[in-house]
Amino acid sequence: MRKFLLISLAILLFQGCRQKADVPDENLRAVLEQYKVDYPKAQLRDIYKSCFQDVFGVAHLISDTQTCVRYLENEMKVMDDELAVEGEWYTVNVIKGLRVADYEYTMPDSHFVRVDLHVVADGRVPKELLVDVLMESAATPPYMTQEEWVSRWQEIKSVAESLAPKPHGFEEDAAAIDSLLAEGDYVMHHSSRYNGEYNPHYRLVRRDLFEQHILPLL
What we know:
The protein has helices at 2-22, 26-38, 44-56, 65-82, 92-96, 118-121, 127-138, 146-161, 170-182, 192-198, 207-214, and strands spanning 84-85, 88-89, 103-105, 112-116, 202-206. By secondary structure, the chain is mostly helical. A hairpin with a 2-residue loop joins strand 1 (84-85) and strand 2 (88-89). The N and C termini lie far apart (68 Å).
């Protein structure tokens, strides 16, 4: 009798584990659904980029302060060429009536923050402060190993695939990302569809540094 009870308990525990593993990540689903609302033209590779940034931050982009300043100034020059209205800086998004936030947290765990460069252009955030925070952010080690990231991405992709409708070009992007990861690489750019629609100009800052140094200025 005791042996039967132990076997039954083991079966129940096993089934419980299976049920727990099969339950989708509802928080992740909610995050991706909100991203789809905010950026309906975004593709799977744009989801990948934000989630990748959440894990690996900005270290792969910044090597030294001079490079950081040069890239920042170059991008702000591009913004200036795109549009300048009444002495104030704007991104094209503002005029197009699209969503433009001063900042947004990366998906899905908000380790980093995308700071839109119009907050520097309009004078609210000093360029020097942003550079200092960027350099400190670049020193942050990744939140996962590459192997852990590959596994996590499969979970994210599975949830993204279940969205209705699926992101535009899902199969092509999924294959491109899988090929990238198989080669031991993991850096991917925004889709041309995303760039054309939303014209992003932002820099990535670690969350705690953003909330301490930049958020009070906004």
